[in-house]
Design a protein that fits this description.
The chain is α/β, with parallel strands linked by helices. It is 36% helix and 19% strand. It has a single domain, classed as Alpha/Beta hydrolase fold, catalytic domain (Rossmann fold, 3-Layer(aba) Sandwich), CATH 3.40.50. The longest helix has 22 residues. This is HTH cro/C1-type domain-containing protein.
């Protein structure tokens, strides 16, 4: 058990360190709250109902639970630090789901707006993080999008990152009630839809060109949110798959859920039935394969190949790029993965991903795309 936990922590740390080294993110600075915060402005955001058109009877039954029943909410926007290519706006809005943990009931987002957004409406993307919730990878992806003209909204998932309950109270709760994982995933999707609504309400954003992307756990939730919402312009799940129950019973990273299930006598099949209302495969048919790009690892030790294949099939055989390594080894390809994600969001053709060995010792030279592209350097 100790060895398994150590391996999991090292894997997550590897992805984080690679993101820092290759992207030079400056994440700590981005996360700091100024000593004298600038004045916030509040906007009223229209909240569209969940799209039901084309849903199967089963999907329609589950989709109703994602509709908040509200048609507007308020969001606060506060200017943050700026970069040559983008400016940071801190966005916060209430989660439509109120949990026992106050820190989880507000969604604190980071919006990276391209400098040209004031002159013309730009496309946008919701960005989701990996399991550890540090946001290094998510911020690197968001900054890269903004540098090339795509506004990016980093949305922390429920109970992750700044929304993590004090003292790990949620761990004890979900260990006692593993079936409540459904509520956590549903809350995250509802929060994402509110984030999308905020983007659509901003004058700088083209409301018809809002996409979504995420890595690992964020990729799985990307697939789920895209299927539930049914209106995202571009969908890029990275290192993701379907059949969440199979992943939970397979991956080291989900051992808490697996152990809680075993303690309660819950089998993988029973967990799959419980998770059916929030299973990406349940809603995958609502994602247009022409608007989806999957990026996966050929030797993924976290997401079983069958889970990747199941999601690919359920969406309808979308374009898929594969890196020839495992889940954590994919960190070496993150600059290329990010550039392909940006290309797809902008409607550019995407090609295969390959690792290009650095020709100099600087961080920025590692893993650049082999074809001429704008620099994928991250936040500075």
């Amino acid at each position: 058990m100790m060895r398994t936990a150590r391996t999991t922590r090292l894997g997550a740390a590897l992805l984080t360190l690679i993101a820092v080294a290759l992207f030079d993110t400056g994440t700590t600075a981005a996360a700091e709250v100024p000593q004298s915060p600038p004045a916030a402005r509040t906007i009223t955001v229209p909240e569209p109902p969940v799209k039901m058109a084309g849903a199967t009877p089963e999907q329609a039954e589950y989709l109703r639970a994602f509709d908040t029943g509200q048609r507007q909410f308020e969001a606060t926007l506060r200017e943050g630090r700026s970069d040559d290519a983008w400016r940071l706006v801190r966005v916060a809005y209430p989660s439509p789901v109120q949990t026992p943990w106050p820190e989880n009931n507000t969604v604190p987002c980071e919006l990276y707006l391209p400098r040209n957004a004031a002159a013309a409406k730009v496309p946008a993307a919701v960005v989701l993080d990996i399991l550890d919730g540090s946001a290094f990878v998510a911020r690197a992806l968001a900054c890269g999008l903004a540098e090339q003209g795509v506004a990016a909204l980093y949305v922390p998932m429920a109970c992750y990152g700044p929304r993590r309950p004090a003292g790990g109270a949620h761990y004890r709760y979900y260990a006692e009630h593993p079936e409540k994982t459904v509520d956590n995933l549903r809350q995250t999707v509802m929060d994402i839809r509110r984030g999308k609504a905020v983007l659509a309400a901003l004058p700088e954003i083209d409301p018809d060109r809002i996409g979504i992307t995420g890595v690992s756990l964020g990729g799985i939730v990307t697939s789920l949110a895209a299927g539930v919402d049914g209106t995202f312009h571009r969908v890029v799940p990275i290192l993701a798959g379907g059949d969440v129950a199979a992943i939970c019973f397979h991956a080291r990273e989900t051992r808490r859920i697996r152990e809680a299930c075993k303690a309660k006598g819950i089998t993988q099949e029973q967990l799959a039935a419980m998770l059916r209302p929030v299973e990406p495969l349940t809603f995958a048919g609502r994602v247009d394969p022409a608007t989806c790009l999957m990026i996966n690892a050929a030797k993924d030790e976290v997401i079983p190949p069958a889970a990747t294949a199941a999601l690919w099939t359920a969406i309808g055989s979308p374009q898929m790029l594969t890196v020839p390594v495992g889940h954590y080894g994919a960190g070496l390809f993150l600059p290329n993965i990010r550039q392909r994600t940006i290309d797809f969001m902008l409607g550019r053709p995407v090609d295969r991903i390959e690792f290009v060995a650095p020709r100099e010792t600087t961080k920025r030279s590692e893993g650049r795309p082999s074809r001429p592209t704008p620099s994928p350097a991250g936040c500075r």
